[in-house]
Amino acid sequence: MDSDKIRENFFGIADIGRNEDGSITRLLFSKEYEEAQNRTRTYMEEAGLTTAIDPVGNLHGVLRSENPDAKTILIGSHLDTVIQGGAYDGLLGIIAGVEAARELGESGYKLNHHLEIIAFNGEEGNDLGGTFGSRCAMGLVPAEEEAYLKKAKAFGLTKDDLLHSKMDTKDKSCFLELHIEQGNTLWQAGEEIGIVNGIVGLVRYKVTAWGQSNHAGTTRMEHRKDAMIGLAKLMVKTDQLARDYGNHMAATFGKVEVTPHAVAVIPGKAEAVLEIRNLDRELLERFFEDLKNLAQELEPISFTFEKLVEKTPQACDKRIMEIMETLCREKHIPHRVMPSGATHDSVAMAHNMPIGMIFVPSKDGISHNGAEYTKWSQVMTGIRLLCETVKTVDKLHI
Fold it and tell me: What is the pLDDT of residues 173-212, one digit of tens each?
């Protein structure tokens, strides 16, 4: 593999959507996204892949086996970014897949499977929901719901577009994804590779604290029913509860709103979105029950909880994990088995096929930020491991 050439190709695409502060913005269906997609399509074709774009903007590149009836190994990640994001998140996995295909094709390797690289659209949060492109590919978007179709129409999409982007998965062997860790575990440990054992589930709730609005100057402290203070106390208790749970439990509050939004009025209502993440679904459920019990201790403030989003944890395929571990040991690559705390396109793909994920380090754990960075030597270690993984999977019946 030509490391310098791969780096040149990577940044040729990564720089599309570059902001003055060095960050990158390529949003769902934006002109920057379309420019990057066109550049990536040319790059795939130069690597020997046959390309097509589906109705929701996912780019597919295929390297075909000589056996027309062969199953297909899928590799992919996303081409979009968050607002003011980084260069490596998503794009690196696409580049890795294309370069693995190039290496196999140019070396004359005889594939037992077709190899398909997918650059997904809309993985990052957006009005159509995160992992949009991969959920469409797996038929997981609510294409029959009028409210969702109304949102899709704003992006120029029809019901047929959503339905016709669904892939036939009967002949798909597995899905592989290389991604930056987006945390600091590998970087701090000085390890080159993370072998992902599963992707955490997440549940989001709208948490509403109910108190009583009153005059901020005349209401004595002992007589107040301050919804904001009640919510703040629950936030602190929730944070401590997550720390006590351990086991990679994560709990985060955001999007706080206070009613009435006034200087001289005690808030009678306070809302926030709570997100909890863990690899164990039972732990997520138990955590929420414990949280509700803590809320009951905060009288006279009362709380209601409305579930907004639920994504179930997804386990990576043990056979693929064992292949990656064996390759790392054989090549003396410092590595560890670890969960993913972030959601990826692999989550959607796992509904219909085995998945495997490789992490490479993120400097200081920074991601979704213009300062996002991975050493290029570590990038190449990940790409080579992905290529060797494909070779091994190609020999098996997964």
Answer: 999 999 999 999 999 999 999 999 999 999 999 999 999 9
CA dihedral 385, 387, 391, 396 (to 10 degrees): 70
Q: Give counts: helices (H), strands (E), the chain.
A: 12, 15
Task: Please tell me the CATH code under which domain 201-311 is placed.
Answer: 3.30.70.360
* CATH (residue range 3-200+314-395): 3.40.630.10
Q: Which two tokens stand for residue 296?
A: 């009951």
- pLDDT, tens digit (0-9, with 9 covering 90-100), for 325-384: 999 999 999 999 999 999 999 999 999 999 999 999 999 999 999 999 999 999 999 999
As to burial, measured by CB atoms within 10 angstroms (0-12 exposed, 13-18 middle, 19+ buried), residue 106 is: exposed
**So where are the chain's domains?**
3-200+314-395, 201-311
Residue length of the chain: 398
Q: Which two tokens stand for residue 280?
A: 């164990």
Q: Are strands 193-199 and 214-215 parallel, antiparallel or unpaired?
A: unpaired
Sheet order of strands, 201-210 included: 250-259, 269-278, 201-210, 302-311
Listed residue (194, 195, 5) closest to 99, CA to CA: 5
Residues contacting 201, CB < 8 A, separation 6+: 277, 278, 279, 281, 284, 310, 311, 312, 313, 314
pTM attached to this predicted model: 0.89
